[in-house]
Amino acid sequence: DGGITQSPKYLFRKEGQNVTLSCEQNLNHDAMYWYRQDPGQGLRLIYYSQIVNDFQKGDIAEGYSVSREKKESFPLTVTSAQKNPTAFYLCASSPRTSGSSTDTQYFGPGTRLTVL
Amino acid sequence: EDQVTQSPEALRLQEGESSSLNCSYTVSGLRGLFWYRQDPGKGPEFLFTLYSAGEEKEKERLKATLTKKESFLHITAPKPEDSATYLCAVMVWDAGKSTFGDGTTLTVKP
Questions:
Q1: Residue-level pLDDT at A1
Q2: Residues on chain B touching A56 (C-beta within 8 angstroms)
Q3: Environment class of residue B68 by beta-carbon count within 10 Å: exposed (0-12), middle (13-18) or buried (19+)?
């Protein structure tokens, strides 16, 4: 089955720890995205990548880091510098960012991160 | 700065009571507008993409329309299983990313 997987589904972190959230896609999509969602709010963009070995900061990149070494993988690290990391994290991918019919983003099931 | 505003924040309907959700946007140059459905604790599920004013798309009880300033998601004769949060997002030219609204939470009572 083609799709986007995120792991783990639930993650607990102690203050001061870095944690890495996994995102893998087998859709052969070029672009990948990370969003944060807080209760009752929409999605805020953390980082995005349009091609391998390249990525850009989104609206709330502080305290987060990413890598894009492989087309199918886009892991997100939540560092200890992120002061309020408890949230629902969503990964998405899209075929590519040029062309009228290929902008649609497809989402994974999400990871819920809780800081203890 | 690109802005997307969804209204109302919450909408309660009786089963069979048709209504509309609104997504108004202020962007420099719209490339596409997207509607998603999100169930609690899950990732958003893609519904529609609209690219130009006057465009309409339908799927079962849902119909999305687009003007130069806003989009509507019309729900005809909703059922309880239509209860979810509906998200709107816009993408502008040369941005490579989308801006999301805060969503409308729809509850359909049997």
A1: 60
A2: 96-97
A3: exposed
